[in-house]
Amino acid sequence: MKIGIIGAGNVATHLVKGLVKAGEEVTVVYSRTLGSAQELTQALPSAAATDSLDFLSAAPADVYLIAVPDQAVQPVLQQAVFPPEALVAHTSGTLPREALSTLTGVETGVFYPLQTFSKEKEVDWARIPICVEASCDAAENQLLNLGRALSQQVVKMAGAERKQLHVAAVFACNFTNHLWGVAQEILQKAALPVTLLQPLVQETMHKAFQFNPFEVQTGPAQRGDQDTLEAHLRLLAQTPQYQQLYQALTASIQTTAGQKADAGKAVGNP
Amino acid sequence: MKIGIIGAGNVATHLVKGLVKAGEEVTVVYSRTLGSAQELTQALPSAAATDSLDFLSAAPADVYLIAVPDQAVQPVLQQAVFPPEALVAHTSGTLPREALSTLTGVETGVFYPLQTFSKEKEVDWARIPICVEASCDAAENQLLNLGRALSQQVVKMAGAERKQLHVAAVFACNFTNHLWGVAQEILQKAALPVTLLQPLVQETMHKAFQFNPFEVQTGPAQRGDQDTLEAHLRLLAQTPQYQQLYQALTASIQTTAGQKADAGKAVGNP
């Protein structure tokens, strides 16, 4: 299977590295900036770098993976010319497959790796879930095979589920990352090392995936410890942003705890 | 050093296990319920179990660690009789050392292990930071030595800093745990396996402690992706609780991003 990569950012970079390592043939890499595409093809003698979206003239591929920011997908589609019967898939968690439906004469799909990519940090593709969707069974099989070359966890997923997965990932990763930022800032202001929190964070994470997090929730909000809650809000008086965040999360924890208590009553638990 | 443990809950259980494993001598374990104390001393032929807080009559210890819920500390202090010149320390992140100042004729301290303990789950004491504070240098050294028998990370910490550490831990652990609960519920409702998110959560955590989390923040809130934000709020329409949480966290991420942009301008960054 010959693969074309559209984009030269974080996702594209790790896709090229991962695919080449898995023995797949990357034949062309596109970037608006030729130099960026060339950086990715440097180590690949048989791959072409291009800043043209006319893929009829460049080394043709069977599968094109669009790995550009969501808002850059439509501009790419407007200019791109793909070989007939190619399979074109985007790598976005948010965009529906139908975002590609302006393309004619090709199959379309989604090839969404559920991971956060940074250029400087190697990733372990084997452990990255890849969510696949396609316009026909043959295209789906192509994407599943491509996924399995990279990862041990490749799943078929319709657009509606992928949307739910994406919003869940925002809660589980984007929002938690922000909270870690808040925590680290509080520690830094108190001249305490941020590493102090690392073992506790790791243990909390292990528990959260071993049990239902709602069942192992601890802390002042969960136990209704009003003295500590008020003391914490006073400590945060200098940062109203963090006070509001503290209140919003405390309220949500207590809502969940209340619902669990009600559910317990409803089935006759003590 | 002979050690008395007051309490038989999660913290007390892991303290006893950890101290015995480290070769320390636990001479007495108190619980309101004798049977609970006996459970902890079962494997310790030289330790007494007691439901009396009169520690003059039980096997005397040099250091007493109070490992009961915060609100149970005062009731314990009102009844307890300690040998003269004993060192009495609580294990709370929230209570000041001065909470023990009603005691006379003893030294007082704090011995706060920064970890979440569950009875059924073994802990690796070597990696648990222990925060120590005491009423005099000799008592401080006793607690530091006791801490070092358990852990590689023992730090002196005044009450004001411990409070900041505790509020930071609430953000970094209690709040993130709740968000993982929300994420898992969203996945379960969509009939998706919760393990899908685990690699992404782990990678986010590694990044957060390798870099400043605010610098590596990603997601729709960070990039001001209004289309995705609105789509997510519509997806959460059935759960106003999660909608509000989504809005509060999005607002906070954008406030931080705005502050960073302003700070950049102030120092003349582009």
From TrEMBL, chains A, B:
Membrane-spanning segments: none
Superkingdom classification of source: Bacteria
Domain DUF2520 as annotated: residue spans: 128-252
Ranges where the Pyrroline-5-carboxylate reductase catalytic N-terminal domain occurs: 2-80
Any Pfam family matching the protein: F420_oxidored
InterPro entries: 6-PGluconate_DH-like_C_sf (IPR008927), DUF2520 (IPR018931), NAD(P)-bd_dom_sf (IPR036291), P5C_Rdtase_cat_N (IPR028939), TM1727-like_C_sf (IPR037108)
UniProt name for this protein: Putative short-subunit dehydrogenase-like oxidoreductase (DUF2520 family)
Species in which this protein is naturally found: Rufibacter quisquiliarum
